Each structure stands twice: as C-alpha cells, then as structure tokens.
Amino acid sequence: MQLYLPIADIPVNIFLILAMGAAVGFVSGMFGIGGGFLMTPLLIFVGIAPAVAVATVASHIAASSFSGAISYWRRRAIDPALALVLLSGGIVGTTLGVWTFTQLRALGQLDLLIALSYVVLLSTVGGLMLWEGMRAILRVRRGVVVPLRRSGSHGWIHGLPLKMRFKRSKIYLSVVPVVLVGLIIGFVGAVMGIGGGFILIPIMIYLLRVPTSTVIGTSMVLTLVTMVFATLLHAVTNHLVDAVLALILMVGGVTGAQFGARAGQKIRGEHLRLLLGMLILAVGLRFAIELVIRPDDLFTIRETGGAG
Amino acid sequence: MTARSLLATVGLALSAAFAIPPAHAERLIVSVSNHRVTVTPNYSGEELVLFGSVEKDAATPATRTNYDLVVTVSGPRADMVTRRKERKFGIWVNTDYRQFLDVPTYLALFANRPFDAIASPDVERRQQLGLKNVLLTQRVGTDYADVVPNDPFRSAFVRLRSEHGLYREATSAVTFLTPTLFRTGIPLPAEVPIGTYDVEIKLFSDGALVTRTETAFEIVKVGFEQFVATSARQNGFVYGLVTVFMALMTGWMASIVFRKD
Prior knowledge:
The complex is a heterodimer of chains A (308) and B (261). Chain A contains 10 helices and 5 strands, in the order ββαααααββαααααβ. Chain A is mainly α and 308 residues long. With 261 residues, chain B is an alpha+beta fold. Among the domains of chain B are: 25-73 and 106-127 and 153-221, Immunoglobulin-like, CATH 2.60.40.3880; 224-255, no CATH class. Chain B has 6 helices and 14 strands. Chain B has helices at residues 3-19, 115-118, 121-126, 152-163, 223-234, 236-257; strands at residues 27-32, 36-39, 46-55, 67-74, 77-88, 91-104, 107-111, 138-140, 143-145, 167-170, 175-178, 181-188, 195-205, 208-221. A 6-stranded mixed beta sheet of chain B has the order 2-14-13-4-7-10. In chain B, strand 5 (77-88) and strand 6 form a beta hairpin. In chain B, 27% of the residues are buried. Chains A and B meet through strand 1, helix 3, helix 5, helix 8 and helix 9 of A and strand 5, strand 6, helix 4, helix 5 and helix 6 of B. Strand 5 of chain A pairs antiparallel with strand 5 (77-88) of chain B.
C-alpha cells in the first residue's frame, strides 16, 4: 500500500516503513539502544532525503526512549540528579547541533558531514565494542574472572573540581565531564539523527563509572529529552520533520522493541556486546565504502527555494 | 475618451492582434483532461491528456495540411543548485556547483516528430524546442545566462531531472487523430512538484510557427497532506510540539500495552 508522505514529498510503501521500524525496534530493544544509527541510513536508502531522515528519526527515537524510560522509572533504575546534569549539557549540545545542521545544509556539505561522522564514530565505537566483546568471551572461555573496577580506582576524571554526589548511582563525581558528555551526545545526535545511546552507555560505564543498574535508564532520559528538543528545533528551523513518516516508524519501532527486549534476555551479555559491535562496525564500514568508491553519479541537485 | 481616440485604440489593438500570427488564420483549441490534479495519500503519479484541434477559416490556404505540433509543459519555477563531487583526500566530496535560477521544476516537451524535422536549428533555438534548447538560466559569476547545451552542469541537471521523470522529451507523443485533431499524454510522476503548470502549444507548418496558444492546470495537495505540509511550514513550533506529543503518546501506549508486571 502506497502512502504519500507530506513533507518528504514522496510516496512510500507503508508496510516497508512499518517493517523497517519493527526491525530497528527489535534491534534497539535487544541491545537497549535507540537505534537511530540504523534507522537514519535505512530511510536514506529507501529514498528519503538525508535531512528529512535525520529530523524525523529524532521524533521516532523520542517515542521509543520514552517507552523505555517509563519502564526503567518504574524499576527505579534512573538517577534523576545524574540525568539532570547530563541534560544541562545535552540541551546546549542539541542547540549547537541543529544550528550546525542548518549551516551545513546551506553550504551543501550536510550529506558529507553525516556520512563522515557515521564512518568515524561507528567504526571507532563498533571496533572497540567488537574488541571488548571478543576479549570478554575469551576470558570466559579461559575461566579468568576480571573484577570490575569500581570505586577506589581513581582516574584523572576524579581529580576534576565541582564534585557532586549522585545518590541513586552511589557515585561522587565532578559535574564537568558529565556536562561535557551530555554536550557531545546532544550535538552528535542532532547532526547525525541518532539518539547516541550506543556511545553514551560505554562512556558512562567506562569513563564515568556509573553502575550498570542506572546506566541504561539514565541514558534513556538524556536521549528522550535531547530528541524531543531536537524534534522541536528541526521543526522550527528546517521544517523537515515528517509527522506521518514518524508515526509509522514509531508504531513499528515500539512494537519491535518489545520482542527485541525479550530476545535480548536470552543472549549472554558478552555475546550481545559482540553482536552490537559487529552491527555498528558494519554500518560504519558501509558509509566508508560509499565515500571511497566513485559514486555512480558525480552530480546532485537540490532545490534552494522557490522564486515565483 | 473621444470617439476618435477610441477608434484609434481599437485600430491599434486590431493591428497588433494581426501582427502576431502573420496572415494565416489557424486557431488552436485545446483542453486538458483535468485542470486540478489532487495529491491524496494514495497518489502515485498520474497521466493527463491534452487534446485539441486546429481550426481553419477562409483565410487559411486550403492546401495546408502538414501541421507539426510542439507541446511544452512547465511546472512551478524554483532555484536549484547542481553540485559536482570530486575526489579529495581519497573521498568523494561536493566541490564545484552551479546555481540554476527560476527554472521549471517539471518540464516536458512533446512533439509529433523529431524537433529537427519540424524546424530549422535556428527556429528550434528561438522557439526553445527540445530540452537542449530550453532556456535554463544559470548564475555564472555575476552574470545570468544560459550556457551551451553540452555544458557538464547543464546536461547533468537535465539528466538527473529526467531520471526522476521530472524533465522529459518525447518526439512521438503527439498524435494526430485526423489531420487537424490531436492528442498527447502528460505523464506526472509520483514526485511531482505542487503548483501551477503552464502548457504552451505551438503549431508549425513548413518549419515556421503558425500560431500558439496556452492553457494551464494545477497540482494541489488536499485534505490531510495539505494540512500537514502547511502547518509544518507556517507553524513550525506547534507542529513540532504536536509531533513530540504524538511520540510521547506512542511511547506511553507501548509501555502500557506491553507492560509485563
């Protein structure tokens, strides 16, 4: 069944979009991430303009992270103080991101920036996760038990000023790196059309040493608020949010996520991380190949505004 | 206004009217099958039909029957940028670009036989017959001009628009049902731009323009599509709020429907 999208201005197959939403939702439920890094490229692949894809996916991620955040809230797995500090940076980052997005769109370099950031970010994060996952699996095979480094092991981050106690997470941490992390995630999310969960969660675990009990729930709150904010800003400045497309994606996404979450519980943690790492790396490599090989068509056209 | 000046005005108008189509007196009567195409949720392209006839009168040389017809359909105009990728530091980057000013977003040229058979190259150029002769104004530095048809940016522009079915040229699309009765289809792709479309019909005989006429149709979004598109443009903030609200509702509904405990 074909459906005409009012903002993207193209007809799409409604079942294809629903299936894409469900598939990405499944993956996001399984790994506890937003899935924007899969959704945006998929939309671009079916012919939706990158700018519309980025802006629309923001609202899709808002929906899935809200449903996730609610269930984490019920389980008291969200640290409100930590979420607030992250958000203070996140809001600023998102504003900067949408502004950059608008500027680059005018310069005609938006597609390049989106592609480049996908390559750099996804290859790095995917590669690291893959490496980590393989080491963890090998360790389990050999029967080596590595104690998780917890409080007591102080890195350079703990030497920073403006320390604050985050009760629910039971950590005592400077707000500087927390605000910075929020800022970076907000910026990257707005420009790339991703929630940033897959970067945020490792940073929070390895760098900020947030316990795993609160990490996913708290990161979801950050994702939720930055994506709500990004949707609003994209709607106001670029008029590119396609509500019809977003609704189909959301319905598919939240449904798929439920099944993904159930499937995820059946897989061992280190295998899950290995799989996610492979997935992220694959998307990154796909973008890299696209940049390096000669494109089929060297020319592109973009409308710059009506003249009458 | 005195009677004399009125007469003079009428006389001037009459002579002006006669000056455009020289001595011949053919007239074109045309109509489009639909003057208002509506884009609905299940819109996926459409084809309009233009039909018409050549009306002769006493002044027309009786022997003249070998008519040629060229139909030009041009959609709403817009500024567009064509960019070219080049290899820089091992990756393909947009570098050079040309701006096309006030060019039709949809352009279709139909004829009953190849343009070079209808008229001489000179007439083809003057009457803008064929995609290679249509005026596409570019900004060249501080100047505004069209360039040679084989300019790489111009040909890439025409090619890309053609790939989307937005620019087209068909020299066998116009069919004469009788020597004076003709029809042609106007295919509109799914990605058709919204707006007013001008249709210009030119009648040629023996390589010279005999007469021309114009008609128009419009493509409009209606109902929900229209509502969404205009509210996104005009009330971005409210539109954003509604989208966010919709997202939150969907998320909340999902958390209730799939609640495990």
